[in-house]
Amino acid sequence: MILFAGLSVTRAQNRDVRYDLLVKGGHVVDPSQNLSAVRDVAIVNGKVARVAEAIQAGEAREVVDARKKIVTPGLIDIHVHVYDGVAPLAIPADPNCIAKGVTTAVDAGSAGAHTFPGFRRHVIQVVDTRVYALLNISVVGQSTLSPDNPWGELLDIRYANPKLAVKTIEANRDVIVGVKIRLTENIAGRHDMQALALAREAADAVKLPLMVHIGGSFSTLPKILELMKPGDVITHTYRAGAGGILDDRMRVLNEVRRAVERGVRLDVGHGAGSFGWKVAEAATKQDLWPGTISSDVHQYNVNGPVFDLATTLAKFLHLGLKLEEVVARATVNPAATFGFGKGIGTLKPGSEGDVAIFALEEGDYEFRDAQGESRIGHRRLIPVATVKGGRLYGSSTIPVVRL
Ligand SMILES: [Zn+2]
């Protein structure tokens, strides 16, 4: 037996085994099959083979002792920035995704048509995290904006190029799952509606969803929502300040409710400036919950207040969601948003062998929002280990050496 990331991992000498890996004794939360109970999860040839009440340890080559832990499908974070070295806000994928329970991540617009080939070659094909992308409608992606150069990618509307976006998406359909646009005024100027129309044109041409970053825009949110269609995604839903989802009396805008009713999806995208406790509390008290919980983890929030997706999930436990409900918003729901199909965000037999293992700790924990306001929550999720395609990773991302 060895200790791995605080878990004991046993390796069988017996070569006559049925499974490669067995995650044993954990509390499995898999909303895709309405499961929340102690179960064993067996993986063979990189796929989930069986989820059952008792699978014998001797049947697996490698056994992870997950007793007293929470076991979920590998998480899906649909808003990250991992074009490290090109987008100033980006961070490396593996230490921030797979090491934190996120086996599948969607980079939200770090790359545009001109910078996407590099993203594919130097990130998607190289990292262990399964990375998909939303293509920025601006050809330069998010390469221009930084704290020292506060000028975004659409200040010159000529950089919004639907033809090039469509061409890039058609050539990379296996990894590009939609179009991204950011509408804050220092990014899209006063021509935000014109830029949004161009993003709309690209998304319609390839029949993929459009993710719209809201808040601080020149045009009002109701105007922006007019251009959004069923299946599109609003990110930064609980952002404080102008251009958000609430009116000046903290009531959810009717236009936001109507957009949700016709199929526009709400995503969290916590980020460095886009999750406010007061907004989140007011909106969720009016029953406006997100369909997906994403982190928008990047250079300027990874050391707080975001840290990782698990911390963002814990904030929604504090807001009143059940554990099963937050896990759904980071597994089965995001899988549906981008049509990942049956193999991701679920532990059904035959799915990808992606599993996340967490400690659910109870105590008094300070959770900060993007404005520096704090709440004391009483549960937090600590990523302990991750399995992707049957391979075990710890919080250091160093895989266990196989026998
Ligand atoms: Zn972002």
Task: Describe it.
There is one protein chain. This protein has 403 residues and is an alpha/beta fold. The chain has 2 domains: 2-72 and 349-394, Roll (Urease, subunit C, domain 1), CATH 2.30.40.10; 74-343, TIM Barrel (Alpha-Beta Barrel). The protein has helices at 93-96, 116-124, 162-171, 185-188, 192-206, 221-225, 254-261, 277-285, 309-318, 323-328, 332-337, and strands spanning 2-4, 7-11, 19-30, 35-44, 47-52, 60-65, 70-73, 75-80, 102-112, 130-136, 176-182, 210-213, 233-235, 265-266, 355-368, 374-388, 391-394. Strands 1, 2, 3, 4, 5, 6, 7, 15, 16 and 17 form a 10-stranded mixed beta sheet that branches. Zinc ion binds at residues 79, 81, 108, 271, 296.
Name of the CATH first level of the largest domain: Alpha Beta
How many helix segments? 11
Radius of gyration: 21 Å
Contiguous uncertain segments of 5+ residues? 396-403
Structural class: alpha/beta
CATH superfamily of the largest domain: Metal-dependent hydrolases
Hetero ligands: zinc ion
Biggest β-sheet strands, sense, barrel: 10 strands, mixed
Residue fraction in strands:
25-35%
Helix-strand pattern: EEEEEEEEHEHEHEHHEHEHEHHHHEEE
Helical content class: 10-25%
Mean pLDDT across the residues is 95
Q: Could you say which overall geometry the principal axes of the C-alpha atoms support?
A: globular
Query: Number of DSSP strands?
Result: 17
**How many domains?**
2
What do we call the CATH topology of the largest domain?
Answer: TIM Barrel
- Based on the coordinates given, report the CATH architecture of the largest domain: Alpha-Beta Barrel
